[in-house]
Every structure is written in structure tokens, then in C-alpha cells.
Amino acid sequence: MTTTASTRVTVPVIELSNVSREFRMGTHVVTALDGINLIIERGEMVAIIGPSGSGKSTLMNTLGCLDQPSSGSFMLNGQDVSDLSDDQLAETRSRQLGFVFQSYNLLPRETALSNVELPLKYAGGLSGYERRLAARTALDRVGLTERYDHLPMQMSGGEQQRVGIARALVQNPALILADEPTGNLDTNSSAEVIEMLRSLNEQDGKTIVVVTHDTEVAEAMKRIVVFRDGRIVDDRAVVHASADSNDNTTESNQ
Amino acid sequence: MNLVLLLSTALSSIGTNKLRASLTLLGIVIGVSSVIAMMAVGRGAQVSVTARISDLGTDLITVRPGAQAQRFAFFGGGGNSDVLSLEDAFALKDDVFAPDVRLIAPENSFSGTAAFGAENTFVNGVGVTAEYLEARNLVIASGRNISNVDVENISTVAVLGSETSKTLFGQRDPVGVTIKISGREFTVVGVIKSQQGTIFNPDSSVIVPITTVHYRLNNEKGLPDSISVSSINVLATSESTVDDARLDIATVLRLRHELAADDDDDFQITTQQDTIETLEGTQGTFVILLGSIAGISLLVGGIGVMNIMLVSVTERTREIGIRRAVGAKRRDILLQFVTEAVLMTFGGGIIGVLTGWAIAYFGNGATVAGDVIETAIETHIAVIALVVSVAVGLFFGIYPAVRAASLNPIEALRHE
B-chain residues within 8 Å CB-CB of A101? Predict the structure, then answer.
């Protein structure tokens, strides 16, 4: 695997090597991730599925730099993030990845625009005008031009999730992580969100990783990684009926 | 996050629950305004007392009988008299031994009633010599002063304080009228001009010759020189010779009382400066006491802030998780909550200072339980109060903020 890595022209967005995560619950130790090896290349669109307790949420927290592996290494865009400090992790979250949550996780008393601005405020370096401009651009991208000044409660679930996606986009990260992005949505809104993620992948070249237990969502992705008991038990490409010619899914990492 | 963002974030968070923020603020407002108002009242009392004492003249020295500390008096105290006599008083007017003494005015106070017709009133009686009025900075409004001839003749003449005169005679001029003081007939020869507002209020007094008090009112015998006095008022030649005069007095009295070198004085000498210092010391304690009581309410206000901030951290756990997930560092969260707490206490402090000033301003001259309240507003107290209110915010805001900052982002995001 090291040889294959050295021959790659581009650095993978995600490279997990033998990553384990253990939690101490009183006297006994729970292994949530058990020696995971996973490479996700730039431009991939991956679904991570598995029953609850399979370790997919822990994986998501690890990929999202909210949690760190107990052992093993996690290279994000070629940088080892497995032993960064708390502040460095916050910096990484703000600059290198966008997070989309099942329950949107918008600040309820802030407008769509100011919710999207939030990551820029913490990253610093931009003036108020530049921040608002970037936030508007992101909202425009997800089709919410009419909703800048709406509060989350004034919008539908699908719209709120699109605000969430805009917030994930605003720093223009290579990687977007979505944790059950359609879990709270009806069929139509789900389809919209999936379409939005596909479009971000295909048109903007974003790498997308979605954790889901919805097989329909998973089938809409280009690659499915199946988790069970903290291990990867299956990793396959999805063949779409519409015959995606540019399917660059890799088969690997067991 | 820069300061502007920090402030605007904190302000908008405070703004989301205005009622709660106002109530929290109110605690600080009450604390700070009571500190300001109490200090103004305390300082006002201090200033007016000092001013009143200074009205008496800073060259006034008072000599009273008795040792400074009477604690060991029952062992005999060396056989000394512990009494000041009229002779002691006259001995202080001595160009050789007491060159710095300009004037002496012995007095012997008594209390009794003054009656005219059906009217009668309690009076603060003072047996005096002619020098008394000058020593006490008093002037005659009508009639004449007690003269030293009256003193020699043990005359039954009296000079009334303005209040006494008003009680007995209303608006009429009492000069020449005969009144009864403690049952004896006295002729009124004068009235003292009202000195309302000074610490020594002569208005309800009656002054009579010191000899008359001794021989007629108290029915005592003995030579005039042996008459005991309750105190001797001494004026120094000038304000700058007060300390020299005090030494002169001590020297003369120690010689006269035949005190040995290691004996303590059997008299007390008090200058106006001593009185001012003693009273200022007492008043200082009073100010500190008032300030502390008010400070406690500020402390309670601070605890209120802490309480609300702790509730706020729990309620906003998810918000904290979201902020952390999109890139907020622990420091950002810490600063946000500390800023909110400090903004609330600082805002409360400003309103409190204004309220306190308003109370002090409009309360100046108000009468509470018969006493006129005087207030003195001091800017430095306001500055201190503001600094303290910010410190209260920091102190009581830091713990909730640390709790907020130390939340695990994953668990915070999961929080309902």
C-alpha cells in the first residue's frame, strides 16, 4: 500500500492507516473502530453505511476532526492530523472541511446569511463585507438567494439543510462530510439534498463523504463502504444505470 | 475572533433573552447604585462634620479633667485630683509659662429647666465667663454678654440661646425679663445669635455666670478659685501655635497638679484637629461599613450573573457544539461567555453609577428620620465601581465560560 501511495500523482483527501478508536466505559473498553484502512481520493463521492453501533459515527467524528484516533494515523489532504492540538484541530475544521448534520445544526436566532458566515468569523482574516459576500455566494450556490435574511424556523427542512450545505461550502473546502443529511427530511427534500451533493461533486469537484443508513441515499453515491463492528466489511463501486463515464471509484483497502 | 466580532456576538446573545438579561443586570445595578449612594452619604456626612468643626475655629483647644485612660483609676492614680478648678483655668492665662495661649474660657455645664409664665423648656445650661462667646465663635443677637462683673458678683443674669428664647417668648425680645432657671429667678440680659447647622448648637442653651451655677444653682460652698469646671476652652494665639499652646497647657497643669515625671496626665487636651481626626476616623469606619453593606449586594448581583451564565451554558450546549464544529477554538468560546458576563456587569455598572448619582444628587438635603442627609458625589468612587463591576463580571463569568469551553464538541452537538 505504501508503494501504491508513492506512485499516486495527487495526495488522497483522506488516508486512514490502521486507525483504531477505543472508549473506556468504566472498567471495560469498547472498540468503536478496529484497525481501519481507508483511502478516499479527491473527487470521490462515498457513502458509509452500517447498522448502528458499527462505528460509522465514530469514523465521521474522526474524519471531521472532532475526535482523534486512539492509534493509527489519519492524513487529511496529506497532513497528519492524528496528533494535532485542540486549537489546531479547530483550525483544520474551519479551513479544510465542511460539515453537514442530520439536524442541520443552525443557530436558531441567526439568519441564514449569518449562519453561513459563522465559519469565516472563526477563521478570521476577512472583513465583514468579504464575509457576507462569501456567504451570499455560498447561499446562491445552493439556490437560496431569496432566503438570506430568513431565520431557520422560517424555512422548510430542505431549505435549512441547504443552508447547512452552504455553511459547509463557504470556506471552499475540498471535503464535505455529511452525517445522515436526509435523516430528518421528506422524500422530495431528500432528493433535492442528494441532487445538491451530487452537483457539488460533479460540477465543483468536491469530495463528498456521506454517513447514512438510507440505502437510496447510499445508492446515489459512487462508492459504498460498509461498516460492521468497527471494521470495513465491504467496499464497492456503485454502477449507475445512467452509466457515469467518469466514475473514478477505487477498489481497495480491506 | 476579533474584538468587534466578539462584542457583536456577545451582544446578540444577550439580546436573545432580554428579560433575563435585564433581571441579571438589575442585580448589578442595585449593587453598584447602592455602593455609589452609600458612599456619597458617608462622604457627605464626613465633609459636613469636618466643616462644622472647622466653623468653631481651628485655634480652639479644649481641656477636660480626667486621665486619658481611666482603666487603672481604682488603684488611686497617685493621689491626683482628676479635677480642673477655676484656678487651673486662670493659671493657663500666663504670659511666661503659657505664651501661646490667647484666651481662656472655663465652663461648667448643667442641665435644668427654664420657665417663663406657663412656658418652660429643658435647657443645656452652661456656667461661663465673659470669654466664652469669643472662644466658641458666638455672637450676641440682642442685649449683652455675661460680663466678668456678673461672674464676680454671682449675678442671677442669663443669656438665652435663640431656640430657648423662641420657646419661652416667641418673637418678643426677652431682654430685661425675669425667668426661672431650675426654680431660681434670673434676669435675661441677652440672646445669642442662632448658629444652626454647626456641630455645637448653642440655640437651645442658656448661659449664666460660672459662679452663679456653683453657689446658687448647685448650692456649693468654697472659694471661687476652687470651683470645679467641666472643661476649659483655650484659644491659641494663632492656628500655627496650637501645638505649642497644647504643650504650654500640659506644662502648667502638670506643675499645678504636682505630677511626677512618670505620672500620666490627669487631664485631656483636645485640639480641633484631634476632634476632626477622631470624627473622620469614626466616619471613615462608617463609610467603609456602608460601602461593605452595599458591596454585599454587588456580590449577590455577581452571583446572579454567575447563576444565569451557568444556566445559559447548559441551555446553549448545542450552540457551543455547532460553533466548535465550524472552527471555534476553546478560547473563542471562553471569550464569548466571559464577554457576555462582563458586558452585562459593565452595563449594569454604568446604569448603577448613573442611578447612584441620581440618588445622591436628589437625596442631598433630604430629611430622613429628622436628620438632614448631605451627600458628596465623588468621581473616583464611580470609576472604582465601574472597575469593580467589570471585575465582578470577570470573576463570576470565568467559571461558566471555562465550563462552556471545556465541553466536548461531539457531546455538545448531541445535546438536545
Answer: 325, 413
